[in-house]
Amino acid sequence: MINIIKINKLIRNILIVVVIIALLLAFSSSYTSFSIDNLAFVVAIGIDKSSNNDSLKVSFQIAKPSAISENGSSQDSPAIINTVEANSINSAINLMNSYIGKELNLSHCKLIVISELVAKDGISDKIYTLINNIQIRPSTNVVISKADAKYYIENSKPSLETLPSKYYQIFPNSSKYTGYTVNATIGDFFNGLTCESCEPYAILGGIVSGNNQEYVSKDLLNSGDIKSNETSISGNRGTENIGLAVFKYDKLIGELNAIETVCFSIIKNQINGFLITITDPKDNEKYLDLYLYHDRSTKTKVDLINGSPFITVNCDFNGRIYSMKNDVDYLNNEVLEEISFAASKYMEVQMENYLYKTSKIYKSDIDGFGKSVSSNFLTIDKLEKFNWEQNYENSFFKVNANVNIKSGFLLTDT
Asked: Among candidates 93, 195, 186, 86, which has minimal Cα distance to 136?
């Protein structure tokens, strides 16, 4: 009996020693390659063409350690930008690790910027390389810049945020209430590359040009025609994100302006509300600003007629009048019906123009209609023989837009 008690005490003492050693190891300050002191956190990556066509110019925007906390001085730059030329992205990372004496960590990367020149040559190898990196999150946004990617990053100075990473994370959210940009991630882009029934797309970025005379001279009704590099915006931040970059396979083939990007978001059900400007049905020389929001989700249907896709899009909106005149009764049902009819026709025209542009000119199904065409075939073999990627350009469209205007936000019946 005494021996058993001694053995139990010995086992208990051994366990206590093991637990103490484990706690000491866990809380001891170790300096390993995984220590935060050895890491440099990248918040944005820029990819440009090098002077040597066989290599890339890769820029890394790295957060300063003090920028991790928002208590630092606002006078200091919250990030630094280093650039290296290399044959590949991985080589660029390796060279930069050697240069800065720390290991680049991409787990906090919020933005990947690719120049227009690089995108036109094809970027599948860049996307595959980045998506294969376990530190890159699928939610990282992709911007195609009309200027050099490095220049875009240098001028992306947030005016309402302390940290660039915070700005990169939240600016795509404006797509929900303007529709002028989209939340386009590297995960979405990768899916578009590997999908046989859709195509990739990305955010269209550019440089603020100030009082752009070409834009200023346009009719106000065509404000939806603007896109990055073409607005009259001026401010502290030197970049803007308006429009959509359209790809065919992995190559940039075109751009969408603001209202076309709104149409894309409507079909994809990625927008809550948006502003349009129509001709006032009561006075053709004046305009009305209307804010529309979904009454129900957009529905699409793909049929085959004589071997050609016939695509129907049904969308319903409620709306409010933003701009008003004092000589019009905006509570009059006849007036509201006229405005509703005009807005419905406007949306139908804009959406059909957008759809024919993507199908006939760009031949790129960024909306993913091909995912619905399979119901027209009994077997996978017949679907594959149809070859949606080539037949999308033969599509015809019918858009049914129903807009119901309910006067102004404050001016309502009581």
From this structure: 186
φ and ψ of 168, to 5 deg: -60, -30
Residue predicted with more confidence, 337 or 6: 337
Do 369 and 399 contact (CB within 8 A), yes or no? no
Residues 99 and 84 sit within 8 Å (Cβ to Cβ):
yes
Cα(290)–Cα(320) distance, integer angstroms: 6
- The encoded tokens of residue 216 equal 């200023």
In the CATH hierarchy, which top-level class contains the domain 272-414?
alpha beta
Q: What SS3 class is residue 346?
A: helix
Q: Tell me the pLDDT tens digit for each residue of 338-349.
A: 999 999 999 999
The residue type found at 225 is D
pLDDT tens, residue by residue, 192-224: 999 888 999 999 998 876 544 444 444 444 566
Beta-bridge partners for 311: 302, 397
**Residues 261-319: tens digit of each pLDDT:** 999 999 999 999 999 999 888 778 788 889 999 878 999 999 999 889 999 999 999 99
* Residue ranges of E strands in 135-256: 141-145, 201-207, 239-248, 251-256
CA atoms within 13 Å, Cβ hemisphere of 134: 0
Structure tokens at 173: 């959210």
The two counts, helices (H) then strands (E), for the chain are: 12, 13
Beta-carbon contacts of residue 65 (< 8 Å; ≥ 6 apart): none
Q: How far apart are CA 61 and CA 44, in angstroms?
A: 5
Distance separating alpha carbons of residues 178 and 276, to the nearest angstrom: 10
| Nearest of 298, 284, 295 to residue 342 by alpha carbon | 284
**Which are the contacts of 196, defined by CB distance < 8 A and separation ≥ 6?**
370, 388, 389
Residue 292 neighbours by CB distance under 10 Å: 24
Inter-residue contact 342 to 290 (CB < 8 Å): no
- Residue 44's nearest CA partner among 100, 108, 101 is 108
Contacts of 331 (CB under 8 A, 6+ apart): 407, 411, 412, 413
Name the nearest CA neighbour of 309 among 383, 394, 400: 394
- Residue 128 has what DSSP assignment? H
Entry pTM: 0.82
Run of H or E including 375: none
Q: Please check whether residue 319 is in contact with residue 275, taking contact to mean a CB–CB distance below 8 angstroms.
A: no
Residue 61: name the closest of 171, 150, 141 by CA: 150
Neighbours of 163 (CB within 10 A): 19
